Amino acid sequence: MEFNEIVMKRYATKMFDGKTLSKKKVEQLLEIIRYAPSSFNIQPWKIIIIKDKEKKERLLPASWNQPQITSCSHLLVFCADTNIKENIEGLTDLMVKNGADAAKIEPYIQMMRDFEKKMTKEQKLSWSQRQLYIALGNALNGAKSLGFDSCPMEGFNPDEYAKILELPSNLVPSVLCPIGYGSDEPKEKLRFANENIFLKN
Predict the structure, then answer these.
(1) How is residue 188 annotated by DSSP?
(2) CB-based contacts of 41: which residues, under 8 Å, 6+ apart?
């Protein structure tokens, strides 16, 4: 499919058919997500991949009992990573391993370190979540490009998810993306008109 067709055919799936996606399909989607852009390329997120039926059942009450959670093939839990400092150091190592001159990139690395130092804990979470939503966009359109469906979901209890998944404090569940083959019928897309969205200046 052309990209514009992918965008138009993608929809927020409310019910999946329960079939399991192939390992190849899932790996292809994960690669699309992995290459999502982020500010400074810091990539402040971690994505928990849940296939286990029992674990999805445990998460259902914390997801307002929405059927996507247990009917999907895989549940992707997008977590903002507030340990930005560690990501910066990891990125530094990665750049050097890939041939970057450590001395030449030092000013860029220091700029990222200074950026991180100025942020409060709340600002780190907010910033990481904004970056994370770019990766979510790749997941939604990437799924449709590979022939299956998805649903972005904010309707869940992040604290309960963190407890059930036993996550460290720096990983904050921020949005869910169940994936699989939809069994519901997509509704006609409804969007504001161009003049309500694009403002001339």
Answers:
(1) P
(2) 91
Could you give the CA distance from residue 95 to residue 91 in angstroms, rounded to a whole number? Answer: 6
DSSP 98-138: TT--HHHHHHHHHHHHHHHHT--HHHHHHHHHHHHHHHHHH
At 65, the amino acid letter reads N
The per-residue pLDDT for range 75-120, each reduced to its tens digit, is 999 999 999 999 999 999 999 999 999 999 999 999 999 999 999 9
DSSP state of 62: G
DSSP string, 148-163: -EE--B--S-HHHHHH
pLDDT tens for residues 150-183? Answer: 999 999 999 999 999 999 999 999 999 999 999 9
Domain boundaries, the chain: 3-182
CATH code assigned to 3-182: 3.40.109.10
191, 157, 189: which is closest to 176 by C-alpha?
A: 157
- DSSP string of 25-41? HHHHHHHHHHT---GGG
Average predicted confidence (pLDDT) for the chain: 98
Closest Cα partner for 46 from 27, 33, 58?
33
Q: How many CA atoms lie within 13 A of 75 on its CB side?
A: 30
In the chain, the percentage of residues whose pLDDT exceeds 90 is 99
Residue type, 196: N
